[in-house]
Amino acid sequence: MITAESVPRLRRGVRLSFDHVRETHVLLFPEGVLVPNATAAAVLELCDGARSVTEITTALSLRYTGVVAQDVLAVLSRLGERRVVAWT
Question: Which UniProt keywords apply (predicted)?
Fold first, then answer.
């Protein structure tokens, strides 16, 4: 079960990159490409395998207003279902 203390990281072979042609983030992985929305990209940038969901939420709260831990958990859960995020 994923909790606020869980620590997400990008799975092996997954890389978040910025596509300068399309001016958007892209998530590259062996099975394909995913174009995350701005919210998901902001979360993914902080998935370093060292920060917990709580720490990611706190970091996002410094940049944006109205950040809720449940929303961050929901984004990470969906990315986990797509097998681009793993948990340590």
Answer: PQQ biosynthesis
Query: How many CB atoms are located within 10 Å of the residue 69 CB?
Result: 16
Model pTM score: 0.91
User: SS3 string of the chain?
Assistant: CCCCCCCEEECCCCEEEEECCCCEEEEEECCEEECCCHHHHHHHHCCECCCCHHHHHHHHHHHCCCCCHHHHHHHHHHHHHCCCEEEC
**Distance from C-alpha of 11 to C-alpha of 84, rounded to nearest angstrom:** 5
Which of 38, 41, 43, 29 has its CA nearest to residue 82? 29
Could you give the dihedral angle defined by the CA atoms of residues 70, 61, 25 and 23, in that order, rounded to the nearest 10 degrees? 130
Cα diameter, the chain: 38
Q: What is the mean pLDDT of each run of 10 residues along the chain (88 residues)?
A: 93 96 94 92 97 97 94 94 92
